[in-house]
Specification:
The model has no long low-confidence stretch (mean pLDDT 96). The strands form two sheets. A seven-stranded parallel beta sheet has the order 3-2-1-4-5-6-9, with helices on both faces. The chain has a two-stranded parallel sheet with strand order 7-8. The chain is α/β, with parallel strands linked by helices. It has a single domain, classed as NAD(P)-binding Rossmann-like Domain (Rossmann fold, 3-Layer(aba) Sandwich). The protein is globular. The chain is built from nine helices and nine strands. The relative contact order is 0.13. The protein binds NADP nicotinamide-adenine-dinucleotide phosphate. NADP nicotinamide-adenine-dinucleotide phosphate binds next to α1.
């Protein structure tokens, strides 16, 4: 089997960290990136020969281009790009702060787009490749409290759907991941109850088990995601009625 190389953004913590270890255990060389070098180095200790840390803030286009070029120069080709980096910003949209909005959009949406051109162009040339977008069911439909985080994840899922169709002609596979509540530093800040909370190790195992499949949307846990999917199919009138009745408005 040919050795495969993955670039995974946000590999220093949470789901990214556990997915890195799994990919590494299964024969992949894993390039990980994130803003905190110490977190990346800690993960790379798991297997220094197969995990390669790169400090990178994906919201900075210039920096992202430089790092993407460095990665291509060293590894020649990225077989799998996992776009996982994000920041969390739930809450009310009643009083949107443009400064906060820019920060979240620059990371969760523009930051993802910044990682695409150089890597996807090499994939197009080779007529092969695979891109996984880690989005969220918080973007399924407008929901009180999902905040700017939900807005960016909705856009990200749209981007994944569009690219799935557009990149098929270049033999590039696109998948999107919609996890429910996963225990990571991101959700550790939540003070509300998180139904069906899952460990990041289990989430990483589920994602890994689906990467060789032809499934577009990887979603879990089903107990939470199936009701959310049903809600997302409802006509507006019923959807708004149910949400107003059962979802508490944020402060
Ligand atoms: N946990 C959940 O319940 C849940 C549910 C649905 C979806 N998700 C999604 O799953 C993905 C992983 O999240 P997680 O739960 O594992 O949280 P996490 O541990 O906070 O991971 C997010 C990672 O993104 C990196 N990151 C953030 N901003 C960045 C930037 N500007 N440039 C580069 N890297 C950046 C962080 O590293 P640095 O801070 O060092 O940069 C961190 O390692 C995210 O896309 C999240 O939206 C999570």
């Amino acid at each position: 089997m040919n050795k495969k190389t993955v670039w995974l953004t946000g590999g220093g913590t949470g789901i990214g960290k556990d997915l890195t270890k799994l990919l590494c255990d299964n024969g992949f060389d894993v390039v990980i990136s994130g803003r905190r070098k110490d977190k990346l180095i800690e993960v790379a200790k798991y297997n220094k020969k197969k995990i390669f840390p790169y400090k990178l803030d994906v919201s900075n286009l210039k920096e992202t281009d430089i790092v993407a070029k460095k990665i291509i120069k060293k590894f020649k080709f990225i077989d799998l790009l996992v776009l996982n980096a994000a920041i969390y910003s739930p809450g009310s949209l009643k009083e949107i702060s443009p400064i906060n909005a820019k920060k979240v959009i620059d990371t969760n949406l523009t930051g993802i787009i910044n990682c695409l051109p150089i890597i996807v162009n090499t994939m197009k040339k080779k007529q092969k490749g695979h891109v996984i977008f880690v989005s969220s069911p918080a973007g399924y439909r407008g929901m009180p409290g999902a905040g700017l985080y939900g807005v960016t994840k909705s856009g990200l899922t749209f981007l994944a759907e569009t690219l799935k169709i557009e990149l098929e002609q270049f033999n590039i596979k696109v998948q999107v991941v919609h996890p429910g509540f996963i225990k990571t530093p991101m959700t550790d800040k939540n003070t509300f109850p998180m139904p069906f909370l899952m460990s990041s190790e289990k989430a990483a195992k589920i994602i890994f088990s689906k990467i060789n499949s032809n499934i577009f949307e990887i979603y879990f846990p089903k107990m939470l995601l199936i009701p959310m999917k049903i809600l997302s199919f409802l006509p507006y009138r019923i959807y708004f009625y149910l949400i107003k009745k059962f979802v508490k408005l944020p402060e």
